[in-house]
Amino acid sequence: MQAAPLNGAYAQCMRRPSARESEIAAAILLALLSLAGLFSQHLDRSLAITRKADLLGVVLTLGATLPLAAAHARPRTVTVVCFSSVLVATALGYPTGPAALSPLIALGIAAFLVDRRSAIALGVGAAAGIIAVYFVVEARGANQNAAFLVYNIAVVGPLPTLDDLDDLIARLRTADARIELVRDGATTPVPGRVESAGYRIAQEALSNFIKHAGAAKAVVTIRQAARELTVEVRDDGARVEALARPGSGIRGMRERAAALGGTLEAGPSPDGGWTVTARFPIGQASL
Question: In a 10 Å sphere around its CB, with 0-12 CB exposed, 13-18 middle and 19+ buried, how is residue 211 labelled?
């Protein structure tokens, strides 16, 4: 009679953790590792560390790591808090250890969640802070961490966007493959991850157009409404059956759209040729 409750308890224990639970667990783990580093790295005299672990060091270490648990909910705020905590700790001479990774993690997440303008602003602000702290600690024999962090910020700064389609089309356009870009609707910023996904889908569809469609013309349309972004690639190719085969990238494009709550349709156009249409829900990114 008690088998059902036991089975239910077992199933509850064995269930896969949610994304939110995993995020919290990762933040706690990084915090613990960073605290361990705080209390041990000051023993290494080869590092540019002048201040031993104390209460302020613990507060700064936790401030640099635990906010990652809310990175997806508050990407901008978490990025600012993580960077500020690490920079202050470094300026004061505390060992940061694994906590030095948290600002880059936060910035990487923000690059996918916020619009490109905000991501660039965060990156520029972080780079400026790193450079300032570099000069503060230079007298203590600063290492090359500042240059490393600036490089990573540049890499994150975020990622292909729909504005990059102009350059992509210019590279792909030939006398035999005419490609046009049409923009329709509002031009307000959208989350970086949506822009990146839209760019990649258009890139894949245009690659198919060049390789398989036997088409003379393709039109890329970016249509932005209040709550939806549409990326459409339509060509006038005759050999559409080639695009329906496995390996044409349709499955990957569909999965990329679905990962952001969107949809993707691909198939023959009523008037001939082939059309790929991706639709993404958009809204105001969290602060």
Answer: exposed
Maximum pairwise Cα distance, the chain: 77
Reported pTM = 0.54
Please enumerate in sequence order all residues whose Cβ is within 8 A of that of 168, keeping only pairs 6 or more positions apart, or say none.
Answer: 199, 202, 203, 206
Instruction: Say how many CA atoms lie within 13 Å of 94 toward its Cβ.
Output: 28
Is 194 in contact with 260 (CB distance < 8 Å)?
Answer: yes
Q: What is the DSSP letter of 232?
A: E
- Per-residue pLDDT 10s for the chain (287 aa) are 455 555 555 555 556 667 678 888 888 998 898 888 888 765 555 455 567 788 999 999 999 999 999 988 888 899 899 988 988 888 888 888 888 888 888 888 887 777 767 777 877 777 777 777 766 665 555 444 555 555 455 555 567 888 889 988 988 888 778 899 999 887 777 887 888 889 999 999 988 888 776 668 899 999 998 889 999 999 887 555 544 544 557 888 898 899 889 999 998 888 778 899 999 998 654 34
Going from N- to C-terminal start, the domains of the chain cover 14-156, 162-281
For the chain, strand residue ranges (E) read: 178-185, 217-224, 228-235, 263-268, 274-281
Query: Residue 50 is encoded by which pair of tokens?
Result: 């002048």
The CATH label, of 3.30.565.10, 3.30.70.420, 3.40.47.40, 1.10.300.10, for the domain at 162-281 is: 3.30.565.10
Residue 182's contacts (CB-CB under 8 Å, 6 or more residues apart) are 219, 220, 221, 222
